[in-house]
């Protein structure tokens, strides 16, 4: 199967995983309570043990679920994430075996620095570039020993809870291993005797057939003993891997595959679509590994907030409270993995004080790849609950300007809470549909954009097991539609001429190709961007080939992360560099990029009764090339001329505003003058149409947002608008006052700042101004095409941002 990792690369990953078993540095005395610092305990993913006596319902009854795909972070609201006894969140105390393993499975040729200790000061420098250098693998032999130690099945009895001991005793893996060992022994003997494998001399094959009788293949097999199903799955996988040697005579590969799929559905509770997808992406053996890994939990990890502390200091403080932890691995200078804890790690004084964020390790990756620089303008398009936003702010050292956008007002509260707790002062929070951001903020206005897109959540099944039973191909396509629109908007926001940046990072917690490579491939056809290396030290290559589909070859530079390989949530990260502003001319410009998977998409849209490409082309929205109707060269470009001119004009104004802001900062004034000037300048802007919103066919479930913003004219009008918008922002959609961090109005805020100016506030938690879009539906669609109140006005976001940042100017000095 095209694009599947081969055995060689998998063993290279395993070897690299060993390499990642880093040296055993310690903060202080290694006997100090709370240290293990034996990375061997957790650097390798470990398949969970499925107890054969537990009914499958029990295995699947994971009350510890997240609220779906959007929550790949802990919300951290009220600080009670992980608090003891919370059934909704992670348990406060995890056992060592649960916490085992965040791997650095690497690709061929990738190296991991093993120099120095994980705790070295150098690790904790406040630098954006976290990539380690060097390639020593001096611990390889020791690591091999470690591996042996792990594989020898010995119990770390002291460290296991009773329940785990019991689980070990009834370990179905052991039973299966014994069966496999016997089978192998038999195969060896028959091989030595020159008999075909599976047959012993003079004997009938001793094992019963794995398949139902050929004439009963479709018959309902009825409820089955789960032990039998599990054993059969493993046997089926073995036969399928060496089909010619091990198959029963007269039985086809398809029959074996069908039986395997039935068994996976039966045993693990996946639906047919999900099983087909996984078996299409991976070899049988690897698909089973992934499925098994999805049954386990990923380790609890946290990220040090370098705006407030250092990892070493944080670790010492937590250890003193009885938290058993280690550095996450050489690839991150700020991460810690928590093995076990005597206290709820979501409610420690350090947590409350914002010294760390409880955050899945995979969430570090897109931000590391984005590598935001100090002083830049950066946008996080889908920010809630803010795990990545706060990391971006930390890497920017609270300088520059960070736009944290989230379409869901309820989820926005968690962003605000986390920004405050973590002491972020360079962020402006907004509540727009991300597709509208190029209008709200202005096209080509930021240096970098992160789109951590809403997705199907197929990478985080361990957090939300409903995904394995509920996701359908149609839902995946719906996600892909929205993701394409959002990605184009992200690209449109970024300025190709940025001196320091010009980058977009696209990430999802989905492993579906439709939502990942396919979405990026689409963007490559529509915009002047190229895929560049993520800068991440590990991860599997993205697909350039998948089934019958082909993507741009550069997509191999994207990175995929898997629970069974890296012990991380399933994740995709791709970094794009913008090479020119504007769209690609549709005739010609796209020719070097293969078509994406839209053919299938059309079929799905048709099935759903949604407008297909063919239908949409009648309204002039679809890509003519796809329909075989090439547009006249330059036609699209001409159509785009007008908004581009507006954008140019706008960026001139924006530059003027920025200059003014810089001067204001220099003067360290309270910002009233700057805010006024900003409002004046921004008030004169017209809303450019959002190229992204026009670009992609609207899925029927996600109605297009009205494209036009308010006409803005005089300065007076603009000021009135700003005040109105700020007032409306102080209430949520359902009318409740939002907690704490909403700007009552720009003017009032500035007055408040003036009052507070002389008050000493060493660790002042800044309020985050919120700028809201029109009322939205569940998925970000706007409720009505007719705006009921003032709609987004170009530059509104910018106005609020400037007002806030001008007021804070003195704090933006480097700490
Ligand atoms: C994967 S989560 C983001 C997680 C976040 N980046 C973090 O690290 O904490 C995706 C977010 O996108 C939001 N979202 C969904 N549709 C959106 C849209 N059209 N525009 C902006 N955000 C959207 C969801 O509400 C959800 O909070």
From TrEMBL:
Gene Ontology molecular-function annotations:
RNA binding; rRNA (cytosine-C5-)-methyltransferase activity
Q: Where is the composition biased (Acidic residues)?
A: 62-75, 119-161, 588-605
Q: Which GO terms describe its biological process?
A: maturation of LSU-rRNA; rRNA base methylation
Q: Where is the composition biased (Polar residues)?
A: 21-33, 688-700
The species this protein was found in: Coccomyxa viridis
Q: What protein am I looking at?
A: SAM-dependent MTase RsmB/NOP-type domain-containing protein
> Ranges of Basic and acidic residues compositional bias?
162-185, 650-667, 718-727
Q: Residue ranges under compositional bias (Low complexity)?
A: 606-616, 668-687
Task: List the InterPro entries hit by this protein, alphabetically.
Answer: MeTrfase_RsmB-F_NOP2_cat, MeTrfase_RsmB-F_NOP2_dom, Nop2p, RCMT, RCMT_NOP2, RsmB/NOL1/NOP2-like_CS, SAM-dependent_MTases_sf
| Keywords attached to this entry | Methyltransferase, Nucleus, Ribosome biogenesis, RNA-binding, S-adenosyl-L-methionine, Transferase
The SAM-dependent MTase RsmB/NOP-type domain covers: 290-579
The record's region (Disordered) falls at 1-222, 584-815
- List of residues binding S-adenosyl-L-methionine: 382-388, 406, 433, 452
Q: Name a GO CC annotation attached to this entry.
A: nucleolus
Residue numbers annotated as active site: 509 (nucleophile)
Question: What subcellular locations does the record give?
Answer: Nucleus, Nucleolus
> Could you say which protein family the record assigns here?
Belongs to the class I-like SAM-binding methyltransferase superfamily. RsmB/NOP family.
């Amino acid at each position: 199967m095209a694009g599947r990792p081969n055995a060689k690369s998998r063993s290279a990953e395993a070897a690299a995983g060993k390499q990642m078993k880093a040296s055993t540095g310690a903060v202080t005395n290694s006997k100090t309570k709370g240290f293990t610092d034996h990375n061997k305990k957790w650097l390798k993913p470990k398949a969970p043990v499925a107890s054969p006596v537990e009914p499958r319902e029990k295995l699947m009854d994971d009350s510890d679920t997240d609220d779906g795909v959007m929550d790949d972070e802990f919300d951290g609201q009220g600080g009670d994430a992980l608090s003891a006894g919370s059934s909704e969140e992670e348990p406060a105390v995890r056992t060592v075996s649960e916490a085992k393993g965040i791997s650095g499975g690497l690709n061929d040729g990738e190296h991991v620095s093993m120099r120095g200790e994980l705790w070295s000061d150098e690790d904790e420098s406040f630098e954006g570039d976290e990539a380690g250098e060097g390639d020593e693998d001096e611990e390889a032999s020791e690591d091999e020993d470690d591996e042996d130690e792990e594989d020898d099945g010995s119990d770390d009895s002291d460290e296991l809870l009773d329940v785990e001991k019991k689980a070990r005793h009834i370990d179905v893996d052991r039973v299966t291993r014994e069966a496999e060992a016997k089978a192998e022994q038999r195969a060896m003997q028959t091989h030595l005797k020159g008999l075909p494998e599976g047959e012993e001399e003079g004997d009938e094959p001793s094992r019963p057939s794995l398949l139902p009788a050929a004439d009963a293949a479709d018959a309902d097999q009825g409820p089955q003993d789960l032990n039998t199903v599990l054993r059969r799955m493993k046997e089926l996988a073995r036969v399928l891997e060496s089909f010619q040697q091990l198959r029963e005579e007269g039985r086809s590969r398809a029959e074996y595959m069908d039986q395997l799929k039935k068994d996976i559905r039966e045993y693990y509770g996946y639906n047919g679509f999900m099983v087909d997808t996984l078996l299409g992406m991976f070899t049988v053996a690897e698909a089973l590994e992934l499925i098994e890994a999805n049954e386990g939990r990923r380790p609890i990890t946290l990220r040090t907030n370098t705006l407030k502390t250092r990892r070493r200091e944080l670790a010492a403080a937590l250890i003193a409270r009885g938290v058993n932890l280690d550095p996450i691995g050489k690839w991150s200078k700020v991460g810690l993995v928590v093995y076990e804890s005597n206290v709820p790690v979501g409610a420690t004084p350090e947590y409350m004080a914002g010294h760390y964020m409880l955050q899945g390790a995979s969430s570090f990756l897109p931000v590391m790849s984005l590598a935001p620089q100090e002083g830049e303008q950066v946008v996080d398009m889908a920010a809630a609950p803010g795990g990545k936003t706060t990391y971006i702010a930390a890497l920017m050292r609270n300088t520059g300007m960070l736009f944290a956008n989230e379409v869901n007002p309820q989820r926005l509260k968690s962003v605000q809470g986390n920004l405050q707790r973590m002491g972020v002062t360079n962020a402006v929070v907004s509540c727009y549909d991300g597709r509208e951001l190029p209008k709200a903020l202005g096209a080509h206005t930021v240096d970098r954009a992160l789109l951590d897109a809403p997705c199907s959540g197929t990478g985080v099944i361990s957090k939300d097991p409903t995904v394995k039973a509920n996701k359908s191909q149609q839902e995946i396509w719906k996600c892909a539609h929205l993701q394409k629109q959002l990605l184009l908007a992200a690209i449109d926001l970024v300025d190709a001429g940025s001196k320091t940046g010009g980058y977009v990072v696209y990430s999802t917690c989905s492993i579906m190709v439709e939502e990942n490579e396919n979405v990026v491939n689409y963007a490559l056809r529509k915009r002047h961007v190229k895929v560049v290396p993520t800068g991440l030290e590990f991860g599997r290559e993205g697909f350039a080939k998948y089934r019958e589909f082909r993507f741009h070859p550069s997509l191999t530079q994207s990175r995929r992360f898997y629970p069974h390989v890296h012990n991380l949530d399933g994740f995709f990260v791709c970094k794009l560099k913008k090479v020119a502003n504007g769209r690609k001319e549709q005739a010609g410009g796209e020719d070097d990029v293969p078509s994406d998977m839209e053919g299938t998409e059309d079929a799905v849209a048709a099935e759903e009764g949604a407008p297909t490409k063919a239908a949409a082309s009648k309204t002039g929205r679809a890509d003519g090339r796809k329909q075989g109707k090439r547009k006249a060269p330059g036609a699209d470009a001409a159509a785009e001329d007008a908004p581009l001119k507006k954008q140019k004009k706008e960026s001139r104004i924006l530059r003027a505003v920025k200059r003014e802001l810089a001067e204001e900062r220099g003067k360290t004034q309270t910002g009233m003058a700057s805010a006024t000037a900003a409002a004046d300048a921004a008030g004169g802007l017209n809303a450019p149409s959002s190229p992204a919103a026009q670009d992609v066919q609207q899925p029927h479930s996600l109605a297009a947002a009205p494209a036009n913003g308010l006409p803005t004219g005089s300065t007076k009008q603009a000021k009135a608008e700003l005040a109105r918008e700020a007032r409306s922002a102080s209430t949520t959609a359902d009318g409740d006052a939002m907690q704490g961090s909403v700007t009552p109005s720009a003017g009032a805020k500035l007055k408040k700042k003036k009052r507070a100016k002389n008050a000493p506030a060493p660790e002042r938690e800044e309020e985050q101004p919120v700028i809201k879009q029109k009322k939205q539906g569940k998925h970000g669609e706007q409720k009505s095409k007719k705006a009921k109140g003032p709609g987004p006005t170009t530059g509104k976001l910018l106005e609020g941002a400037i007002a806030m940042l001008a007021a804070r100017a003195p704090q933006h000095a480097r700490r």
